[in-house]
Amino acid sequence: MKSEQAWIESPVAYVAALQERRLEKVEKPKDLLKVFTDAFVSNVSKSDAQLDLYPGIVTDEMQQSLNHDRLCVVRGMVQDIGESELFVLSYATSGSNGSSEVEGSSKRATAFLKDNTVLAEHSVLDPQSVTYADRQSLIVTPVPAENEWVLNELIPNFVLKCRSSAEDGEYSKASKIRKCGDDANGSGIVAFVKQKGVEVKFYGDENEVAINNVYLFYGVYETVPLATKLSAEQYLMDCDFSDDSDKREDGNSKLIFHSVFVRPVVAAAIDNIETNSLTAVNAIEKMCLLVSESRPLLLSALRDVFEGDEIIAEWMLLHLVSSVYKRADTMPIGNLSLNITNCNRQTVDRLYVFLSNTVANVVRIPLTVEALNKSKLVPHKDVESGILHSGLLQLPPGTSIIIDETGMNPGQLSDIGLSNLAALTALIEYQKVYYDFKFQNVELFCNYNVIILSTTRSLIKTSAQKVKLVDGMSQPELTSCDIGNTKKLRRYLATVKTLPYEVPSEMSEVAQQYFVQARQKDPKYSADNFHSLLNIARIITLSQGNVKLNGESWQKAVELLQAQEQCIN
User: Fold this and answer.
1) Strands (E), 252-377
2) N or C: which end of the chain has fewer CB within 10 A?
3) Is the confidence at residue 163, as pLDDT, over 90?
4) What is the pTM of this model?
5) CA proximity to 336, closest of 321, 319, 351, 324
6) Which comes out higher in pLDDT, residue 165 or 90?
7) Which residues, in sequence order, are CB contacts of 82 under 8 Å at separation 6+?
């Protein structure tokens, strides 16, 4: 059997065979671990076999149907990252009398990808015979607020598991995990689907994964008896193994996933452009052509969403393609948050339906006094159990967040409500989310597209661009695009954010002259105003399929901001 096929059909057996040839020749634990991981990556990357793909969730169905021997993939968001931990990499096998064989004649075996099973079978290991290495412990969950069409894009490359029906499949549940709307009582309180994430043991570099990012984890499942003395640290420290079953999962066993390497998840829409065989310059040219051809299509669709209002459609397009591309100290640069006023519930519904078909992840947050007082927006850490509990705002990068303020009514905000309001303000203003660690708040930077739809100016006081929807320009109509055009819109929105950007020297001079003249006309014109103009000009340029700022894009940015100022004043 070819080595790459052996890795897929039985990774654990392949490791055992590999250690027979290599184990005695490797002295350092890191070198031994590298032998295993390098063999894994080199062999699996050469295979085009269709692998089983699981969501970041553990179900009873999975535990009954899993093929533990075969390589598979877990796709999910890193919800929490634990401390680095030790595990048993290799050990001396025992003689017939139960003790380790005589030194010099003993035979060693590897516990790689099955260390918990080894510890369960060998209740006592000679500490002197054990070789330890370290790995990262992660919690991986289904991707929050992910739309169904994203998962359908994976079918050509994987066999999707635990997705038997739209009603019962864990993937469909995962796609709704943080989509929220009115409950039966009409309160609009955010609801969550309670699901257990997957405990992933990751053997790659700790810098390869980051919290809230989405990855494909390649590896194997292991069923661990809950009575197992799992901790390698406990063997080192000779600790007492007290019964902590009350802190563990229900049942007699649990699943963990051993991941040898990961691949970051990029938009499937970009993969379909087929630029791998092109040079870097030609690939950019092809992406720019796609963007320039698709922009009118997106603009037309957004006009339908916003009752024919072309100015709002233009602002919305720029909002959707904006993205934080760097930070000045802690301030985000590149994003464009919006507050569209004069909206009603129907406007919110149309936008949500449109984004659900074109953007990978969409969350709708109904902003009412009751929802603010009862919702859990920020993640919080249980310091006793060490478990990080997700909040509504723990989402993957690039998520579109619709804050629906059209149902806001008078009322008194509680301490929780004020805290949630502050969290939304920090999210919009600084693109960061505070994680509640009980005795302190830990801030994590994020990159979300946040839009507020309200009847009047938003309750959330931020520097988000404020634009007003004009009444009755046309009968609102949301016509469904054919699948070809829908895919074009998805590719457009994903591709624009990947394009490079440059300001030619002549345009830099134009911008500097504009700033000087603006300050002369209005002493209140600030550096923040100028930064906003530069950002809008950048987004317009990229949205048109250009990678260099030109005079036309600059002038359009100036006119757009001037029209916006006249509208709100």
Assistant:
1) 253-264, 326-328, 331-333, 338-341, 362-366
2) C
3) no
4) 0.86
5) 319
6) 90
7) 136, 137, 138, 139, 386
Among all chains, which residue has been given the structure tokens 């949630």? Answer: 420
In what helix (H) or strand (E) does residue 541 lie, and over which residues does it extend? helix 527-543
Give tens-digit pLDDT for 182-209: 443 344 443 333 456 899 999 988 899 9
Angle between helices 527-543 and 551-568 (to 10 degrees): 120
Q: How far is CA 72 from CA 51, 175, 349, in A?
A: 6, 21, 38
Residue 289: how many other CB atoms lie within 10 Å: 11
Which pairing describes strands 198-202 and 253-264: parallel, antiparallel, or unpaired? parallel
Q: What is the pLDDT of residues 526-536, one digit of tens each?
A: 999 999 999 99
Distances (CA, A) of 44 to 30, 35, 72, 338, 493: 21, 14, 11, 45, 32
Dist. CA 257–CA 200, nearest whole Å: 5
What whole-number distance in Å separates Cα of residue 119 and Cα of residue 199? 18
Give the residues across from 73 on adjacent strands: 53, 218
Q: Which pLDDT does position 154 carry in this prediction? A: 76
Q: Compute how many other C-beta atoms are within 10 angstroms of the C-beta atom of residue 387.
A: 13
What is the full DSSP assignment across 340-369? EES--HHHHHHHHHHHHHHSSBEEEEE--H
Token code pair at residue 252: 């007699």
- Give Cα 352 distance to the centre of its chain: 19
- Looking at residues 53-58, what average pLDDT do you find? 81
**Secondary structure (DSSP) of 136-157:** EEEEEEPPTTB-HHHHHTTTTT
Name the residue with tokens 């950019």.
Answer: 284
Beta bridge partners of 451: 338, 402
Amino acid at 225: P
CA angle 86, 89, 94 (to 5 degrees): 120
- Spell 131-170 as b/e; 16+ CB within 10 A means b: bbbbbbbbbbbbbbbbbebbbebbeeebebbbbeeeeebb
